[in-house]
Specification:
Layout: H1 2-39, H2 45-91, H3 104-120
């Protein structure tokens, strides 16, 4: 269940990142179109300012927010890969984590106990 929750959080964060990137691209295009209208004399400086300032503020917010979300997404991806690696190792019968005795450990114990048992006799 924990892995399913982690997958859901990862998908949600990836979706948020995509939404923010699309919003940023649209915002840049809107600002450029507004600037073109102003340069063409189709809107005055007051109309330009009224539209530009909210868009510019949102653009600054996106410029701050997108790298943070990207970093969070990267951390989640790394954590997921680490979990998958741990699970894979735990399921591998030849891996020391899955094989609690680790092969050599059993023979080392036998040699240790056999040596001490022989000395006591």
């Amino acid at each position: 269940m924990h892995l399913e929750q982690a997958d859901a959080v990862l998908r949600e964060k990836a979706n948020l990142f995509s939404v923010l990137e699309r919003e940023q691209k649209k915002s840049v295009a809107d600002i450029e179109n507004l600037h073109d209208l102003y340069q063409a004399g189709q809107i005055d400086k007051y109309g330009f300012g009224a539209k530009y300032h909210p868009w510019a503020e949102r653009q600054r917010q996106l410029d701050d927010e997108i790298p943070k979300v990207q970093a969070e997404l990267d951390v989640l991806k790394i954590a997921q890969l680490s979990q998958e690696e741990i699970i894979s190792e735990a399921r591998d019968p030849l891996h020391p984590v899955a094989n609690a005795t680790g092969g050599r450990e059993t023979s080392d114990r036998r040699n240790y106990h056999g040596t001490h048992c022989d000395r006591r006799r």
